[in-house]
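Notebook, p. 212. Picked up where the previous page left off. The plan for this session was modest: take the two constructs that came back from the sequencing core last week, fold each one, and keep the raw output in the notebook itself so nobody has to go hunting through shared drives later. Recording the first one now, exactly as returned: residue sequence, then the structure token string.
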Amino acid sequence: MTPSSHPGASGTLTAFAGFERLARGDRQEVFAQLRQYTGGAPLLIFDDTSGALVDLDLREPAPEPTAAEAPRSVGRPKLGVVAREVTLLPRHWDWLGRQPGGASVALRRLVEEARRIHHGRDTVREAREAAYRFMTAMAGSLEGFEEAARALFAGDRPRFAALVAAWPQDVAEYLQGLAAVSWSNENDPT
């Protein structure tokens, strides 16, 4: 693992044995690397985008990526359109019904506009939540955890960096990588 390889690349995983980073790559690469692991420390595998723990059963043959087939439903499945339930007040349905193209077109337009307007804020929130998920699993018992979590969500980068610097190197580096996006987008108005 080189210092230049950092979390955040879509579709990649990182595996830790205790506080030591063992593997990083796509699901198949990590599976292959971990199959050779003979140490006794428990393995924890994280999604590099969400910071969430990933369940990877090393007893089974290498997992094949599969596209989950959704049950046939209303909508336009070939276009990726899936029907779901939305609960609104009658006045909301009335307004949507009066919009050009109808309710579906109006809702899609509103969602896209909100995504565009709040992109920067959403990116910061998602990066901080990913960092916190990882922190909780890997560093919840380390000294300064609560203060580091407060600094993360307060956007206090220098304090956060100072607190996690005392943690095991692989954990601190990975955590800094997860949080990096939140610092660079913090002042982005889009």
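Okay, moving on. Second construct, recorded in the same format:
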Amino acid sequence: MILRKNQDLFNLVRSLAGVNQFTSNEVTSLVNFTNRRLTTAYNTSQMWTRYIVPSEERKVSSFIISGITDSNEYNIPYTKYGDFTHTGTQISNVFVPNNQSASSQTTTIFYKNSSSKWVWGLATYSKTTADVVTIAPSTVFATQQDADEFESPSKVLDWGLLSTRTGNLVITNSSIITYDETFDVLSSGTTRVSKTSIAGFIRVHRKQAFLNNSSTEYDFFVDENGANILNSSITSGTAFVTYKKHIIDTSTGEIITSLDINGSSGSQQIPLEFFNYTAHSVFADFLRLDGQTDKAFAEEQIAQNFLTEELEKVDIINNRNSLNQKFSTYINTSSR
């Protein structure tokens, strides 16, 4: 996929304006206009080829924590990490955050102690390729107080008083695919690598889709935590997500920061499919800033024509594939 240089966009806008040089304030405005117009173009379709990722495997949570008041980093979804032998012979699941992006999360874990009670806290841990986990506890945040033994922390009714954390440990069953996720690791000491951040969920399948065989598709709704899978018996594991990537740099919240007026850095950040629309619409914004509203309206129409042409290409492609086409049947609306 081709990217055009930022300076190419600037040069075209400068040619349309018929000027040799913009003031520093005008350049700042042009950068802001460019970011706004690129975002507008990006939002006109879910199916821009550049930003679509088809059927990528993602973790599905078993439950989500809420109620911790001292740090919101702990109020997140957790997924199964592996199996732990906690009393010499008894094996239970071990749960860690879906997205261990913060340093405080990389050793956060749920496991059972020697008394078969669930524990939430910090520990160094590792697992084999067969998902057999070894744990070395360090800090305990909460311990199950119920006398009964439970298969999941979400079943625990009484966690007692929290240690080194404040609030109440509330655990709710969930099947959530989070927006952000780190790759699975074999050791808590391994540096986490983040997967591509999800900007928008399009489709979710039980197995890899669009390859050889058909795959069961899940309905879902989206909230601040991610995609919540409906009518599913999933309590841990993975699903395959077709999603849209961000156009912005998620660390800065911007698309571009400079138009490279002097050409020294030569940044290439302008998607080819958005180039003409962005140039003419930014020029329209510049005209509007200068009070030339009639000329701005005409230029806006030219820009919209360029965008419409690109959208027609996307529509033609979509009419020939199934990435965004879903057929509802009794199979994908029943619990499974």
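Notes on construct two before I forget. The mean pLDDT is 90.
Flagging for discussion at group meeting.
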